[in-house]
Design brief:
- Strand 9 (136-144) and strand 10 form a beta hairpin.
- This protein is 18% helix and 30% strand.
- The chain folds into two domains: 1-89, Pseudouridine synthase (2-Layer Sandwich), CATH 3.30.2350; 93-255, Pseudouridine synthase (2-Layer Sandwich).
- It is globular.
- The protein has 255 residues and is an alpha+beta fold.
- The mean pLDDT is 94.
- Strands 1, 2, 3, 4, 5, 6, 9, 10, 11 and 12 form a ten-stranded mixed beta sheet that branches.
- The chain has helices at 37-45, 77-88, 162-169, 193-196, 240-252, and strands spanning 8-12, 16-21, 58-59, 68-74, 93-101, 108-112, 115-118, 121-127, 136-144, 148-155, 217-225, 231-235.
Length: 255
């Protein structure tokens, strides 16, 4: 059993390593971040995370800070180039699960819409009518609830906030997403059991804890070809908060 503060390694070779990224931990160092997956994993493996010499941990793709799931790193420059090429050319297969607000009228769909920076917010992306970068996302319904839907999502390109913005553009924003689906004024982001179970009463004197209060998006599968030409598929089951939310929705979210 690994120590509590260690990242879960899903797959590893001499060239690369994949971990189960927890929500709330940035992929790479950023402003105001005390730690990140890159530095944390480098220390865990005893590898440097900077410099020119190999072996060292090298970034090949990213996940948003509050998204959980499969995150892949290279251990040398050749592997980084090999894997980055697949990401850049959209030959890597990615599958996500997304809990969204609303219910689509059909069971599957395709969103082919270019993305660019939002005209009034440097933090946000938006679907644009002219210009932008091509982006394409496929989706299908996994499970429906009264007010929410669980989707399986297949991004065919890898643009910033692609899944979040594409789903928002068809009226299916992530159920929890403070940036693109902000809660009503004064309310904290999250899904609460009291939202689903109308006779729910929290323990006296204790504030109700949310079932989930981070992005309801999880990178579940990643498939690629390694440097030896072998196909690799890495699977990362959704973490406890995501599973518990779906379970409670199945129990109370259809009433």
């Amino acid at each position: 059993m690994r120590p509590k503060d260690e990242l879960e390694i899903l797959w590893q070779s001499d060239d690369a390593v994949a971990v189960a990224k927890p929500a709330g931990l940035a992929t790479i160092p950023g402003r105001g971040e005390k730690t990140c997956v890159l530095d944390h994993l480098a220390a865990q493996l005893g590898l440097p995370s900077s410099g020119a010499a190999d072996p060292r941990l090298r970034v090949v793709h990213r996940l948003d800070k509050d998204t959980s799931g499969v995150l892949l790193f290279a251990k040398n420059i050749d592997a980084q180039r090999h894997l980055s090429h697949q990401f850049q050319n959209n030959t890597i297969s990615k599958e996500y699960v997304a809990l969204v607000s609303g219910r689509p009228p059909q069971t599957e769909g395709e969103i082919d819409a270019p993305l660019d920076r939002h005209p009034s917010s440097h933090k946000r992306m938006a679907v644009v009518a002219h210009g932008g970068r091509p982006a394409r996302t496929l989706w299908r319904v996994e499970q429906t609830f009264r007010e929410f839907t669980l989707l399986r999502v297949f991004p065919k390109t890898g643009k910033t906030h692609q899944i979040r913005v594409h789903l928002l553009s068809i009226g299916l924003p992530l159920a929890v997403d403070p940036l693109y689906n902000a809660p009503r004024p004064g309310a904290a982001p999250g899904i609460y059991l009291s939202n689903l179970k109308h006779d729910y009463r929290p323990t006296a004197g204790q504030p109700e804890r949310p079932l989930i209060d981070r992005l309801t998006l999880h990178a579940e599968k990643l498939s690629f070809v390694d440097r030896q030409g072998a196909a690799v598929e890495i699977v990362c089951p959704p973490p406890k908060d995501f599973r518990a939310t779906v379970k409670q929705l199945g129990r109370w979210g259809n009433a």
